[in-house]
Specification:
3 helices; OB fold (Dihydrolipoamide Acetyltransferase, E2P); alpha+beta
């Protein structure tokens, strides 16, 4: 069983490091989940926290507390599950509140942005826009179907912002 704990600790730790590196390097993570009621299960975030805590508790308890294998397994599973559920609740709260929402969406209207992830006709991309001294990255989609092929757009103008998604049209770069 020690091997299972160590493998869980290493895999969970690597996933945690990959998540942190993705945040530092500003990379988007792959997401997807299965929901049971209002609880998201089988998410990458939940799996990461579960594996890391499960492995850490399972590897540490026998060495430092001298617990038996059944008690260690029960505590490791409980702590891992509790951590995954707690993380789900915290991130769920952040999703349902205004935390992370862009304040003053109207201040973005008319600004020019650079396309950083190509926008497709029926799929979202990502744009980078400067507002004052800050640079923001926004999910973006075309404002109108009549604006041509969005795959060719390098610079866009923000026409509207709805629920954190910029609706954009093509623009010539500002001089």
């Amino acid at each position: 069983m020690d091997t299972v704990y160590l493998i869980s600790l290493v895999v969970g730790g690597l996933l945690l490091l990959a998540s942190l590196a993705g945040d530092v390097l500003d990379l988007d993570a792959l997401t997807g989940d299965i929901e049971v009621g209002d609880l998201h299960i089988l998410t990458m975030r939940g799996a990461t926290y579960f594996l890391f805590v499960f492995g850490a508790i399972g590897a540490a308890l026998p060495r430092f507390a001298g617990t038996g294998s059944i008690m260690t397994a029960a505590l490791a599973v409980s702590a891992g599950a509790a951590t995954a559920v707690l993380a789900d609740r915290i991130f769920g709260y952040l999703r349902t509140t205004d935390s992370g929402d862009l304040d003053g969406d109207s201040s973005l209207l008319g600004l020019q942005a650079e396309v950083v992830i190509p926008i497709r006709a029926h799929a979202e991309g990502k744009v980078s826009v400067r507002r004052g001294s800050e640079r923001l990255e926004l999910i973006a989609r075309p404002f109108a179907d009549s604006d041509g092929d969005p795959l060719t757009w390098k610079h866009v103008r923000i026409i509207d912002v709805r629920e954190g998604t910029a609706l954009v049209s093509p623009a010539q770069p500002d001089a």
